[in-house]
Amino acid sequence: MKHMNSEVKEERTSNKKRIDLFLVPIVLIAAFLNLFKIWTDEYANAYYTAAVKSMLQSFHNFFYASFDPGGYVTIDKPPVVFWIQTISAKIFGFHGWSVILPQALAGIGSVLLLYVLIKRTFGVWAGRFAALAMALTPIVPAVSRTNNIDSMLVFTLLLATWMLFRAVRTVKFGWVLAAFAMIGVAFNMKMLQAYMVLPAFYVFYVVATKITWKKKIAFLTTATALMLAVSVSWAVVVDSTSADKRPYMGSSQTNSVLELAFGYNGINRLTGNTSVTGSSHKQPAQTEQQTASSETKQNSNSSADSSQSSNQRKSSFSQKMQAPGGGNQNGMFNTGNPGPFRLFQKGLSDQISWLLPFVIFSIVGLFAGVKFKGPYTAKQKESLFWLAWLLPVAVFFSIAGFFHQYYLIMLAPPIAAFAGTGAVALWSMYKQHNDWKSWLLPGGILTTAALQVYIMSPYVSSIGVAPIAGVGALGVILALVLAIRKQRKNSLTNYLGAAAMVVLLAMPAYWAMTPIIYGGNSMLPSAGPDSSSGMGGPPSTATNSKQSGFNGMQPPGSSSGNSSSNNQMQPPSGSSNSGQMQMPGGSSNNSQMPNSFSSKSSSSKRKSGGMNAEVNQKLLNYLTKNNTGEKYLFATTDSTSAAPYIIKTGKPVMAMGGFSGSDPILTVSKLKAMIKKGEVKYFYLSGMGKGGQSDVITWIKENSKEIPSSKWQSTSSSAQQGPSGNGTLYEITLK
Fold first, then answer.
1. Left if phi > 0, otherwise alpha if psi is -120 to 50, otherwise beta: which for 131?
2. What is 220-233 written as a DSSP string?
3. Structure confidence at residue 686 (pLDDT)
4. What is 437-497 written as a DSSP string?
5. pLDDT at residue 17 greater than cutoff 80
């Protein structure tokens, strides 16, 4: 009781201070991890960066989140985050860092929000520990250092949580509406992923709010209706607009935002159903999943036997890429095999699970003695909220058929919350009790250290034996000493407890720094000694810094040669290797990769994003010189080939089949009409990316003249040899 009173007094004293001096270094750590060297990522995720370039050019493109300046097709996500990125680029100029900046600030903001949320009820030290755990969760800075959506999504959901907590404290209906409306805003960032927190919101409001059941039901029903209205507001506007007056909705098969939300970005994530229907075919999806296989071909150096290596890779991919989570050790996209222990498998555990055993012990301690019918303390109610966030999301990632490693940032807030609240709670139990609860702290330290040794063991060739042995030995020693000394209350015991927390956070801190140390991957963010590959699996033995990744796909119009960068062009998607999967911001799992990537980026200014922003200048010069007023500089199968030219020139480039080349956007009759109107006459085809446009590609080849490669094809030694060889440039003029 005396301890609790002193904690409340400490919290009240802390609340009177303007600045928590212990919070300052935590925020500085978060700022360093999220901001340092983001200026070296020149183009970030080029698929999304190209959209920002396009959105800067007109309100029409801005509103619809058009991928290309011509307003032909949108990106595959709702627009809110990209609106923010575009505003940032408008203020600071169009740069890689200016489109990354909003996400980096959101990552820092999430650390601060979690501190505020935890501190009020659990005390200032719990808030500090939670904020530090959030800052050092490896996947958090890895994602926040890119222009992918998830960092901003988590920040928005934490802001909604703050509003909900305020609604419960003040018993004001307005805050309930605001909280659920904010989830609606988050829906317009990444669609159904925003709804993963709804169980926590409903459970907490029902349990924690001191109003009648009638009011609870009425308030929640109204708030849910508002959330749904905000969620579909943009979708209704877009879907109600005539198709000829707006871009095609990228990665949907019916040109519908709602179909995109509940299919491609919704249920298909859980089921792993990746089949789509093209204009006249049904074939394996080459939508989101294809970036993975493309990424594996982007970034290694070409060598004399590049052709042979390419063939081996294609064979390996077609044999190994199987159903979600099955058929190989690491599962699809290195996300492990579905099951109750999936989050402890390699590829996922090193991104998010470093503190999970400690969290489990914390949950046991926090809910010890709680009766189902209550009454509940404020701490127990808020612990229930974080548990209702943690469990459904953990279950989803344990069984889902299709997701990427960086989606795991959704687990970071509840894990960090329990790490902070549990550290204080377990320490209190350790000091005050002599029953089983006093063993939770040493037990949590021991099991967490054991898991961390397991997580690091595949990386022994990269990080060495010393860190692994050090964490294991110190974890065992500190846990045993705490167990032996648990009856003693002196300063040495306090230091031992603090030392244990330092040991448990040491390797997550190192992992969180790896995107800075080794270079990150903006297409598929992940942390670890191989973070520049974006694969999240154990590192290879490659040492040449110019070999980061895999043999890259050439940019349109470049011939084969030796690679000089780790940032090569993805192949136009939709290749004949239908088993290969990719995603906007995607990469492949380690089990499908040749052992040939390095740990460090080769240049101080990385052109990341899986697309080589070093466009073929000779091709660009030829297209510019011979443009006779056409709207589009050229057309190509997918966004992979188009994005670098949009970023470089700001001119419209048509991705005929959307991101991956599989969207049923174009028909032969539509293309004829566009050519007759003088909208497009040049077509770059690599022989891939047919998807639902095979008829269109066949017609182009049959009704065009081939432009001699000597007029436009680069012979630069920096060009890469793709797995399908050089593409071909065609010209069509109809009268």
1. alpha
2. HHHHHHHHHHHHHH
3. 82
4. GGGHHHHHHHHHHHHHHHHHGGGHHHH-HHHHHHHHHHHHHHHHHHHHTTT--SHHHHHHH
5. no
